[in-house]
User: What shape does this take?
Amino acid sequence: MIKAKYFRQLKNDEVRCLLCPHYCLLKPGETGRCRARQNQQGILYSINYAKTVTISMDPMEKKPLYHYHPGEMILSIGSNSCNLSCDFCQNYTISQFDVPVKELNPEQLLELCDQNRINFVAFTYTEPITWFEYVLDAAKILQDNKIGTVMVTNGFINQEPLKELLPFINAMNIDLKSMDDDFYQRLCGARLQPVLDTIRYSSGKCCLEITNLLIPGENDSESQIQALVDFIQDVDDQLPLHFSKYYPQYKMTNQPTPDATLYEAKKIAEKKLKYVYLGNILTDNNTYCPKCKKLLISRENRIRNYLNENRCPDCNTIIPIEF
Assistant: This one.
C-alpha cells in the first residue's frame, strides 16, 4: 500500500480522486468505485499496489495486438480492480469481485522476466488504469531493461495521469465499446468522451490498436458501426481495428453475435480503414498490403512474416508494424 498519485485533499479529511473521470469523493475509510484506492485519514492510498490476480504467458495476438511484435509471447498480469462495471464483462470474476492476489513488486516482475527470457509484459485482464502507481513504476523499470510494455485498457482515464504514463508504454489496445454515450452510462457505468480523448491523445505516442465488442441489439447497427469507423478514420486510418464476437457473460443474456454481423462490420470498416480484423471467430486474420493486397503477415497455424523491413515487398508501401 503506497500513497496514491492524483488526488486532492478537502475539508474534514475528505479526498477527491483525480485519476479517472469518476472523480470519486471519498470520506475517511471509503474506497473508490474501482476498489483500488482508499481514503485513510485524509490521504488517498493505492491499496492494490503490486498485487496481481494472475501471472501467465500469452501470444501477443491474444491481447489483441497484431501490429506490435507479431508472433511474440508476452507475460500477462492483472489487478483485482476496474473503474467500469460493464454488464457484459468477460473477466467479471476478477474485475468486479475481491479474489486472492499474489505479491509481485516491480523488481520481482523484472527478475521473473530475466529468469524466463521474457521481452514483453502486458498489464491486462482487468483495468491497468486502476493499478496506476504500480504500472508506472513497473513500466519504468521494464523499459530501462529493454522490456516492452503493453496496456490493454478501457481508456477511461484523465489526461494528466495519461500524459505521465504514456512515455513508458510501448503499445496499447483500447476497448472502444460504443460510440453511444447512453451505452456507456447504461451498461458500463461510465462516459464515452474520456475514452475518445484517450484514443486521440495516445495515437502516435505508442503502438495503438482498437477493439470493439459487437453486442446484438446494443451497438451492432450499421449506423453505430459507421460512426465508430468514422471516428477512427478521423484519428488515423492506419489504426488496426478489431471487431470481436460477443458471447453471453455476467449480467448480459443477449444471444451471441452472428458471424454475419462481424463480416458486415469488417466490410463497412474496410471502406475507410486499412487494417481490420475479427476476434473470437475462426476467419482470415492475416495482414495484407492496403495498396496491392499482397499477403504480408500470415497468422494461419503460425506467424509468417513476408515484409521487407516494414515495407510491402511488391509495391514498397510502408506498413505500420513494429518488430
